[in-house]
Specification:
Blueprint (H helix, E strand, L loop, with lengths): L15 H32 L4 H27 L9 H17 L9 H33 L4 H32 L4 H24 L20 H9 L2 H31 L5 H27 L1 H21 L4 H19 L2 H16 L4 H29 L11 H26 L8 H14 L1
Length: 460
Amino acid sequence: MKLFTNSDAPNSSLGIVEKTAYTSGNIGIAFINTIIASFLLFYYTDVLFLNAAVLGTLILVSRVFDGVTDIIMGMIVDRTFSKLGRGRAWVIRMCVPYAISGILLMMVPQDATEIIQYIYVFITYNLCNAICLTAVYVPYNAMSVNLTSNTKERGIISVLVMMGAVIGTLIVQSTVDSATKALGGDVRAWRIVITVYAICGLVCHLFCFFFTKERCVPQVDVGNGKPHVDTKLELKALFGNKYWLIAISCIFFALFSTGMLNGAGMYYAKGALGDTAYYASFSNVFAISQLFFLLISIFLSRKVGKRNTILAGMAVMVLASAVQGFLPAALPTAVLCAAFKGIGAGFSGGVAYAFVADTIDYGEWKVGQKSEGVGMAAITFATKMAQGISTVLVGWIIEWGGYDGSLALQSGKAVLAVNAAYNFVPGICCACVIVLLLFYDLDRKMPQIQKELEERRMRK
């Protein structure tokens, strides 16, 4: 395996440095995104003592705006023709604002009235998620289609992207509880911790920018101007593409499942197991298991295909969720089931990006328009919608159960609500993915489609 890529050919095999650099981009995103997905609601309810149901409603409203900005950013990427590339140009432009917006999430004014606090939460949540994260994450995802056209390399990139997310998540989940407690567990402690994560994320994005190159983008002829992008064809290549719709729906439900696990994890540790310190134990087992089986998914998908790899992963997650949900809450059970959930998440997550990239190639083959910006923006949209709605649902469920963040011991109804949020809802989501995949048969068609696309590109 070579250290550097040393080639600008579209079908290049990427070197270790470039693969590592691209992976670091998702680590940087995860440093702040994990705080949002796993700890932000807990910080607001158990540190600032804001109302979970009100927060959930604010986040749900925010997601409507967030979804619009994802599609707009995808169209902007498709129309970006820069010497820096399509996606890379936006990563360097927006990585600093993203880091700053992450820090602002924790700066809720303590002495203000509750109304002012909720307004602040709404504004900063949208600034970070709908604007800054979108402007980094959508271009970053689009880069995965443009680094190389080599299908084998794309499969590896898909795994590395998910590994980056898992590594970033693992670092945050392993340290945030102990770090904030070591610093006093108060508002100041949380602000210091998020600042450290934001700076580390910024460094990761700079590494990603300087050591990657997009090779599969249209070349700009100065004399003829920028290539024309037909919006109608761009959308037809996606929304007239049943495989893309199935793939994005599958990713949404899979991420919704993970979002529920992340969002309800601290509540499960505190409410069902009795101590937030247990969260690191089972969440780290999940992440380590997922990381290992992300690597295994490379080989499994080559043997049985991307669809069947995801099916296997979802089946394991359904089984693990059911077992943990029906057994009495105990740390050994939580750790064991987390390991199996990690296996399922690793199998499905390892092929997710390549899964969507195949459907974008199918759309290009079908209508003659490549739509990687909007096509991959849908992953960002699905990710943030899944995280947002799952966070809302966690808030609503625990509020229904009567969960009280100021109490060390929760009522039976509150524990039941936490268990439903952490186990039963994720299991149902994974079952939905299994049903959707019964209608997906693109894997067997891709070799011929890729061959014809290469012939078309050579003629151009």
